[in-house]
C-alpha cells in the first residue's frame, strides 16, 4: 500500500491574554507569509519574541551543532532548503506555558512559510534550467543553420559570436584555426574592445611567433583554460607569456577533429565584476563541438562552391571560344554568299544601275553601308564619275576632274584608306588632301583593282559615332572590292558588247568576231581567277621557298591524326622536329641564296625518306617537321629519324660549292594526355633541343624527364619574377684583405637568392634561366640598390665595395648616369664603390663601354678588370680603358704549388710586374690555402680574397667588424 501523506500541522492559534498582542500576531502572520526569504522570516520572529517579552536571540542552528546545556534553546521553525533550524537562545528564565504555546504555534507557521519559500526556489531553479536548456537548444539549432546559410564565412562567424553571446558574456570573442601541416594559425574572426592591433583574418601566422601565449597553450595542451591572468600564469608556470592586452578573466576551449586540435574559441573579460564560471566553461566546450561541425560543413560547402565556380568558368571560356568559332564561320559563310551573289549579279542581264544597287545591298549585309558610293576613273579624260551614290548628306555627287580629295588619295596610292577626322586633318596638313565633302566620323575607301590598274574606288562612311570601321572591315571590304572590280569589268564588257551589237547590227561578221573575242577574254579571266584562287590556296598552305606544306597544313593533318588516335589508340603516328646544325654559319659564310638552295634540297631529301602518306613541312628558317602516319610501332619513328640524319649527312652540291650539314631531330609520340596538335609539336621541339645539347647530329625522344625539365624551367622563371617583386635577392659580401696582415681593405658584393622553399641559392643555380628570361638586369639593379645602401655602414669613410657589372648593362648608354644617381640617392662617396667588368664586356660596342667607364672614373668610381687572364688578355685593354685594379682569376691561384715554382707562378709574377709598371693594384681571387698566400706574397701581390680568409656572408655578419 502506498504511504499516506503526513497530515498538515495544526495551526490553531492559542488565544493571547493581551488584545494588543493579538493584533501584533495578526500583523506578524501577514508579514510572515509575505516574507521573500529566510532572513526576513528570522527578523519577523525576532519582533514577535521581543513583543512577547521573552529575553533571548534568534539563531540558525545546523543539525550537527550540539546544544549548549548552559544556554537553553527553543526550536521554533525548520528550513528545508538550508537543512537548518531557527532556534531561540534564552538569555533569562524560561517563559510561561502560554507564551511557549504561542511561540510554538508561530514557529509552525514559520515552518510552513519556509517550506513554501523552498518549494518556490526549487521551482524557479527548474524554470531557469529549462530556460537555459531552451536557449542552448535554440543556439545549437542556429549554429547548425549557419552551416547552410548563403552569407560568407565572416558573416557566419559574426552570427556564431552573437549566438554564443546569447548564452554567456562574450563581448570579447575570437576564433583561431590551426593548420598542423604548416604549423600556422589564422584568426578568421576577432572582436576585442581593447586590442588596437587585431590580426588580419586572411593572414597566417607561424605558431612559433605566439609561443607560450594563452592561445598557444590552448592549442598545444588541447584542454580548456579558464581563469585570471595571474591564475593562468600560476597554472601554466614556465610556459606562459602575455600576448595582447591584460584582461580580468580568460576562457578558451579547443576545437577538436579526429582527436587532433584544429583551433579554439576564446572569450575575454576586461570587467572586474564579470568572471567566467565552471558552468560557462562546460557550456562553451559543448557549444564548441557544434561550432566545429558547422565550420567544417561550411568549409566543405565553400570548397564545393569554389570547385563549381572553377568548372563554371572553364565551361564559360570554352563556350566563348566556341561562340567565336561559330561567329567566324558565320562571317565566312556570309562573305562566301556575298561573293556568290556578286558573281551572279555580274552575269545577270540587269542594268548597271540595278547592279550597283544590288552590290550596295550585298555590302550592307556585311558592314554598315548606309552611306555608300562607287567612283570610277576615266583614263582618257581623267574625269571622276560617281555612277552610284547613296548618302544622308551629300545626296548628289556630280562628276569632277581628278583632284586631291580622299577618293583621289585612294586612286593615287592604290591602297585602302581608313580615316577619322584626325587622320583627315593630318593628311590635309601634309598636303595629300585639299578638299573633302561632308565631315564624317569615319571614312573607309578601298581601290577597285583590275590587275595592276586602279579603275575606281569603293567607299563607305559614317556620320554617327555609333558606327565606325576597323581594320577587319577594311580587309573585308578590300577582299570584296576585288570581286566587285571583276564584276564591274564583266558588266562593262557586257555593256560594251551590247552597244557594239546595237551599233554594228549590220556588220554581223565583225560583231560575231568581237563577241567571240570578248567571250574568250571572259573565259581567260575566269580561268585566271580560278588559277589565282588555287594559287592563293596553295600558297596559304605551302612554303614559298621549298614548296613543302607549311605549319598551318601540318597542324591540320596532325590534328586529324590526333583525333584518330584518340578514337582508336591503335592508329599510331609520330612527330619529328628537324633542325639543321650550324645553318646560320652556312648562311653567313656563303650567302642567303645558297642557303635557300640548301633548304630546298634538304626538303627534297627528307621527302625521299618518307612514304607517300607522310607529311614533311617547313616551319620556318632551317626547321622542318615530319608527320609519320600508319606506323606499326614507335621504334619505326626512330629508324626513320636515323635514316633522315644519314641522308642529310651526304654533301650537297650547290653551284660550284660542296656544302656539308647535319641535323638534330626531336621525336614526340602520342599519348592520352595530349589534347591539341600544338602540344605534340612543342614537345618534339623540346626533344630536338635535347638532341642538340647531347652533341647534335642525333635524334632524341621526348620523355617524362624532358617534360619535368620544361615544367621546372617554367617554374624557375615564375619564381624569379616573384622573387623580384618580393626582393628575395640579397648581396653577400666577401672581404678583400691585405695578404701581409689579413686587414680588410674592402668587400666584393656577390649575388645570392633567398628562395622561400630551396633556401639560399648561388648564381650558378639560376643565373642562366634569369638571363634567358630577361630578369638578369633587374636582379643586378636590385643588388646594386642594396649594396649602395649598405656601403656606408660596411666601409665607412675608408675601404670600398666592389660590384660586378655584366656586359649586357653596357648596352644602355645611360648606365653611368644611373649608377651615379644611385650613389647620390644613398649618399655614398664615389671612391667607396668599385666597378668590376670582365674582358668579354669590352668586346660589344667598345667605344660606348670606354665612354661609360671613363665617366665613372672621372667622378671618382674605381674600375677593376675581373678574371684577368681568362679571356683575350689583350694588353691594349690596359691602356685604352681606365682600369685601376687587375683581379687575377682563381684558375691561376689554384695551380700555385706548395713549394717551388711552376707555370702558374710565372704567369702571376708577370701579371704583377705588368700591373706595377702600369701603377695598378692586383687582387688574387680564390685563395684557399696558406701556401697560395705565401706564394702570392713572394711575387709581390699585396691583396687577395678567398675562403682562406672568409666565406661570403650577409652585411649583418660584417657590420660588427666594420664598426671596430
UniProtKB/TrEMBL annotation:
InterPro entries: Cyclic-di-GMP_PDE-like (IPR050706), EAL_dom (IPR001633), EAL_sf (IPR035919), GAF (IPR003018), GAF-like_dom_sf (IPR029016), GGDEF_dom (IPR000160), Nucleotide_cyclase (IPR029787), Rev_trsase/Diguanyl_cyclase (IPR043128). The keyword Lipid metabolism does not apply. The keyword Acetylation does not apply. Residues 713-964 form the EAL domain. Residues 571-704 form the GGDEF domain. GO terms for molecular function: cyclic-guanylate-specific phosphodiesterase activity. Its cofactor is Mg(2+). This is Diguanylate cyclase (GGDEF)-like protein.
Amino acid at each position: 500500500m502506498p504511504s499516506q501523506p503526513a497530515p498538515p500541522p495544526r495551526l490553531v492559534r492559542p488565544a493571547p491574554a493581551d488584545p494588543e498582542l493579538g493584533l501584533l500576531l495578526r500583523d506578524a502572520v501577514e508579514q510572515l507569509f509575505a516574507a521573500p526569504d529566510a532572513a526576513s522570516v528570522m527578523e519577523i520572529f525576532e519582533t514577535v519574541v521581543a513583543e512577547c517579552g521573552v529575553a533571548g536571540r534568534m539563531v540558525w542552528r545546523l543539525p550537527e551543532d550540539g546544544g549548549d546545556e548552559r544556554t537553553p534553546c527553543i526550536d521554533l521553525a525548520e528550513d528545508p532548503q538550508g537543512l537548518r533550524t531557527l532556534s531561540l537562545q534564552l538569555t533569562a528564565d524560561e517563559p510561561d506555558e502560554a507564551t511557549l504555546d504561542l511561540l510554538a504555534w508561530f514557529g509552525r507557521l514559520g515552518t510552513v512559510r519556509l517550506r513554501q519559500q523552498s518549494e518556490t526556489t526549487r521551482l524557479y531553479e527548474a524554470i531557469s534550467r529549462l530556460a537555459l536548456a531552451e536557449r542552448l537548444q535554440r543556439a545549437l539549432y542556429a549554429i547548425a543553420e549557419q552551416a547552410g546559410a548563403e552569407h560568407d564565412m565572416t558573416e557566419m562567424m559574426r552570427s556564431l559570436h552573437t549566438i554564443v553571446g546569447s548564452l554567456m558574456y562574450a563581448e570579447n570573442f575570437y576564433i583561431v584555426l590551426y593548420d598542423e601541416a604548416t604549423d600556422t594559425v589564422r584568426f578568421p574572426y576577432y572582436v576585442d574592445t581593447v586590442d588596437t592591433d587585431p590580426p588580419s583574418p586572411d593572414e597566417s601566422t607561424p605558431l612559433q611567433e605566439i609561443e607560450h601565449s594563452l592561445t598557444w597553450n590552448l592549442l598545444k595542451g588541447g584542454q580548456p583554460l579558464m581563469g585570471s591572468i595571474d591564475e593562468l600564469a600560476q597554472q601554466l608556470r614556465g610556459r606562459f607569456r602575455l600576448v595582447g592586452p591584460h584582461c580580468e578573466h580568460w576562457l578558451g576551449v579547443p576545437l577538436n577533429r579526429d582527436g587532433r586540435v584544429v583551433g579554439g574559441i576564446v572569450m575575454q573579460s576586461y570587467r572586474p565584476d564579470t568572471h567566467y564560471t565552471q558552468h560557462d566553461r562546460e557550456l562553451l566546450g559543448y557549444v564548441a563541438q557544434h561550432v566545429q561541425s558547422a565550420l567544417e560543413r561550411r568549409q566543405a560547402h565553400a570548397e564545393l562552391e569554389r570547385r563549381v565556380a572553377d568548372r563554371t568558368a572553364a565551361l564559360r571560356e570554352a563556350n566563348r571560344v566556341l561562340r567565336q568559332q561559330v561567329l567566324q564561320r558565320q562571317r565566312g559563310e556570309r562573305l562566301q554568299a556575298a561573293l556568290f551573289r556578286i558573281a551572279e549579279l555580274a552575269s545577270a542581264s540587269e542594268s548597271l544601275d540595278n547592279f550597283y544597287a544590288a552590290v550596295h545591298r550585298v555590302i550592307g549585309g556585311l558592314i554598315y553601308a548606309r552611306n555608300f558610293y562607287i567612283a570610277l576613273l576615266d583614263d582618257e579624260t581623267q574625269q571622276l564619275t560617281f555612277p552610284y551614290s547613296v548618302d544622308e548628306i551629300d545626296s548628289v555627287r556630280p562628276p569632277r576632274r581628278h583632284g586631291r580629295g580622299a577618293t583621289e588619295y585612294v586612286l593615287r596610292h592604290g591602297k585602302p584608306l581608313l580615316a577619322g577626322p584626325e587622320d583627315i586633318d593630318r593628311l590635309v596638313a601634309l598636303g595629300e588632301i585639299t578638299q573633302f565633302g561632308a565631315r564624317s566620323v569615319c571614312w573607309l575607301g578601298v581601290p577597285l583593282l583590275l590587275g595592276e590598274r586602279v579603275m575606281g574606288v569603293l567607299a563607305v562612311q559614317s556620320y554617327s559615332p555609333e558606327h565606325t570601321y576597323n581594320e577587319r572591315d577594311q580587309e573585308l571590304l578590300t577582299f570584296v572590292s576585288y570581286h566587285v572590280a571583276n564584276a564591274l569589268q564583266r558588266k562593262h564588257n557586257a555593256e560594251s558588247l551590247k552597244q557594239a551589237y546595237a551599233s554594228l547590227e549590220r556588220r554581223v561578221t565583225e560583231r560575231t568576231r568581237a563577241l567571240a573575242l570578248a567571250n574568250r577574254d571572259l573565259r581567260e579571266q575566269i580561268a585566271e581567277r580560278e588559277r589565282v584562287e588555287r594559287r592563293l590556296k596553295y600558297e596559304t598552305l605551302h612554303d614559298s621557298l621549298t614548296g613543302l606544306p607549311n605549319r598551318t597544313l601540318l597542324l591540320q593533318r596532325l590534328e586529324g591524326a590526333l583525333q584518330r588516335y584518340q578514337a582508336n589508340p591503335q592508329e599510331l603516328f609520330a612527330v619529328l622536329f628537324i633542325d639543321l646544325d650550324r645553318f646560320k654559319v652556312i648562311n653567313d659564310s656563303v650567302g642567303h641564296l645558297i642557303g635557300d638552295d640548301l633548304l630546298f634540297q634538304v626538303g627534297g631529301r627528307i621527302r625521299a625518306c618518307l612514304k607517300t602518306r607522310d607529311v614533311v613541312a617547313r616551319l620556318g628558317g632551317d626547321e622542318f617537321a615530319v608527320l609519320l602516319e600508319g606506323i606499326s610501332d614507335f621504334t619505326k619513328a626512330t629508324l626513320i629519324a636515323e635514316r633522315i640524319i644519314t641522308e642529310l649527312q651526304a654533301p650537297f652540291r650547290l653551284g660550284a660549292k660542296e656544302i656539308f650539314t647535319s641535323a638534330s631531330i626531336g621525336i614526340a609520340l602520342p599519348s592520352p594526355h595530349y589534347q591539341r596538335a600544338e602540344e605534340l609539336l612543342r614537345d618534339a621541339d623540346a626533344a630536338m633541343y635535347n638532341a642538340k645539347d647531347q652533341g647534335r647530329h642525333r635524334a632524341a625522344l621526348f620523355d617524362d624527364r624532358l617534360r619535368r625539365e620544361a615544367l621546372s624551367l617554367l617554374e624557375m622563371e615564375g619564381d624569379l619574377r616573384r622573387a623580384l617583386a618580393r626582393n628575395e635577392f640579397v648581396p653577400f659580401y666577401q672581404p678583400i684583405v691585405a695578404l701581409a696582415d689579413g686587414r680588410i681593405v674592402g668587400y666584393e658584393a656577390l649575388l645570392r637568392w633567398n628562395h622561400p622553399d630551396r633556401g639560399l641559392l648561388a648564381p650558378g643555380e639560376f643565373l642562366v634561366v634569369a638571363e634567358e628570361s630577361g630578369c638578369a638586369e633587374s636582379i643586378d639593379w636590385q643588388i646594386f640598390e642594396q649594396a649602395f645602401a649598405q656601403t656606408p655602414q660596411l666601409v665607412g669613410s675608408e675601404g670600398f665595395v666592389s660590384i660586378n657589372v655584366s656586359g649586357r648593362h653596357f648596352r644602355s648608354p645611360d648606365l653611368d648616369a644611373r649608377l651615379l644617381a644611385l650613389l647620390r640617392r644613398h649618399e655614398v662617396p664615389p671612391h667607396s664603390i668599385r666597378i668590376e667588368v670582365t674582358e668579354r664586356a669590352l668586346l660589344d660596342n667598345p667605344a660606348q663601354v670606354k665612354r661609360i667607364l671613363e665617366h665613372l672614373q672621372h667622378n671618382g668610381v674605381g674600375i677593376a678588370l675581373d678574371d684577368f687572364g681568362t679571356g683575350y688578355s689583350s694588353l691594349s685593354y690596359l691602356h685604352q680603358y681606365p682600369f685601376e685594379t687587375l683581379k687575377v682569376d682563381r684558375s691561376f691561384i689554384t695551380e700555385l704549388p706548395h713549394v717551388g715554382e711552376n707555370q702558374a707562378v710565372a704567369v702571376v709574377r708577370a701579371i704583377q710586374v705588368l700591373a706595377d709598371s702600369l701603377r695598378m693594384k692586383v687582387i688574387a681571387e680564390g685563395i684557399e690555402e696558406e701556401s697560395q698566400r705565401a706564394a702570392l706574397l713572394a711575387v709581390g701581390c699585396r691583396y687577395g680574397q678567398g675562403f682562406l680568409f672568409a666565406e661570403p656572408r650577409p652585411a649583418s655578419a660584417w657590420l660588427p667588424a666594420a664598426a671596430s
